[in-house]
């Protein structure tokens, strides 16, 4: 049985991903960071919304993830907020992902950043884009759940 991560271990979530994509498979990958980036992650200065994962030369890279530097960053380091970050997965997993991504309609999207045993990890998903009518269905479902919660709340008073 998989252990649920603490809510305190979460760094950032990509909330737009669930709206724009259907998730087929999920993977947890390590992420290669510089020292100032780790400090900024601890402060929560990260934005995953526009991030995506690409495969180059048999390796995975996270592009578009903004890690904003702290004002107290060292003077000898020139921080770049939108730096391309390498992701770490087993070779077998990467080969499997390469085969899946080459199929029509599949892409890799980052879902969230979190801490695991003191290391920053990123959850990525093999995803297929939603059509416009699927997005409308998602909105209808969300509004329906809100309405049910409103009625239940007013009934319990």
UniProtKB/TrEMBL annotation:
Task: Specify where it is mainly localized.
Answer: cytoplasm
Where, per UniProt, does this protein localize? Cytoplasm
Q: Which UniProt keywords are listed?
A: Cytoplasm, RNA-binding
A single GO CC term for this protein reads: cytosol
| Pfam families hit by this protein | SmpB (PF01668)
Give the signal sequence positions.
none
Enumerate the HAMAP family for this protein.
SmpB
Q: What does this protein do?
A: Required for rescue of stalled ribosomes mediated by trans-translation. Binds to transfer-messenger RNA (tmRNA), required for stable association of tmRNA with ribosomes. tmRNA and SmpB together mimic tRNA shape, replacing the anticodon stem-loop with SmpB. tmRNA is encoded by the ssrA gene; the 2 termini fold to resemble tRNA(Ala) and it encodes a 'tag peptide', a short internal open reading frame. During trans-translation Ala-aminoacylated tmRNA acts like a tRNA, entering the A-site of stalled ribosomes, displacing the stalled mRNA.
Which protein family is it in?
A: Belongs to the SmpB family.
Q: What is this protein called?
A: SsrA-binding protein
Which species is this UniProt entry from? Answer: Simplicispira suum
């Amino acid at each position: 049985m998989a252990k649920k991560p603490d809510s305190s271990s979460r760094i950032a979530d990509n909330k737009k991903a669930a709206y724009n994509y259907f998730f087929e498979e999920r993977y947890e990958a390590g992420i290669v960071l510089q020292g100032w980036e780790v400090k900024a992650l601890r402060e929560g200065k990260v934005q995953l919304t526009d991030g995506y994962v690409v495969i180059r030369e048999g390796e995975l890279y996270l592009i578009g993830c903004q890690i904003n530097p702290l004002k107290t960053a060292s003077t000898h380091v020139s921080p770049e907020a939108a730096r391309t970050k390498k992701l770490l997965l087993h070779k077998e997993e990467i080969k499997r992902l390469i085969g899946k991504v080459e199929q029509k309609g599949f892409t890799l999207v980052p879902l969230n950043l979190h801490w695991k045993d003191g290391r920053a990890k990123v959850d990525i998903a093999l995803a297929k884009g939603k059509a416009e009518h699927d997005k409308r269905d998602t909105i209808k479902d969300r509004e329906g759940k809100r309405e049910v919660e409103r009625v239940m709340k007013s009934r319990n008073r």
